[in-house]
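B., you asked whether I could sanity-check this one before it goes into the benchmark set. Here's the sequence:
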Amino acid sequence: MARIPIDSTKVGNKKTFTVVLDAGHGGRDSGKYIAKTAEKDIALKVVKLLGKQLESHSHIKVVYTRTTDTFLELYQRADIANNAKADLFVSVHCNAAAATSAKGNETWVLGIHRNADNLEVVQRENSVILLEEDYKEKYVGFNPNDPSSFATNLMIQEEYLDNSIDMGSKVQEKFEKDLKRKNRGVKQAGFAVLRLSYMPSVLIETGFLTNTEERTYLKSEAGQKKVANAIYDAVLEYQKNQDINLFQVAALDTSSPAIAPAGNNARYRVQISAGSNKLPAESYNFHKLPEISRDQEGGIYRYFTGNFSSLQDAINLKAQAVSKGYTSAFIVVYENGQRRRL
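And here's what the prediction gave me:
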């Protein structure tokens, strides 16, 4: 199977991968402040540790929204990412809850909140808008207390959603396996900073400052290093996956086992959509594409068409899906109980 690169802007043998790291809050906006612990300080320390690790790779360019205790408006953070033409935007935060027993981490991607818990988190993170001058003019049509007011922006950013979910899933996996933290899942809600960033974007809630054990961990140098390392590993895995997908299938050549994507027992499907809406897995909901199936990961649903033993059949169906408007469709492989992106 021959592969043709579709982007030749490279450093050495790898494409330059630009990551924007956003330490949440800052300056007069402390974020959550619990037991003399400010969210803004922990976020900045984690981001600096993370950035230092990523900067050790020559093919990764790191851009920071802030490196000191300064106040930035949300649109400024997004502008930095957009102007850098970033491949990934990572915003780091800490969580809080009325129940001090709440624990674990969660990663958010752009979407419309679906329940009261989501709304509480998004209102808290968006509340910084109210500290900004002329915020009504800067965020026309956006109500920080009702993120569903920007539903039209979701259509513009739909092409980035699956990659955002992919990155979020990797973050959650690393926190759970490497740090033994409770996995609260990948979730969708209307965060303004994600709404304004036009690239795959995630907002990571690293733990609860209202939980004494997690607050102590996040305040410690050792804890901050482990958190930064978990995010670092997730970024590298995500970036590696993106490198693979910088290539498109040009022709089927099964005579080259070195580049065969899967074994003889593999099944191929075409992913056509992902999001928080649970739809019946029926052809009529997806422009009459055949054999629709649905997988769930936390509150995120992925929708697929087809189920083939032949890669060529999947390639043909992907082309059909693209022609029907699913321009970000891609092939996934199911093998040995695992799903991976081709």
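One thing to flag: Residues 1-12, 113-119, 149-153, 245-260 have pLDDT under 50 and may be disordered. Otherwise nothing jumped out at me.
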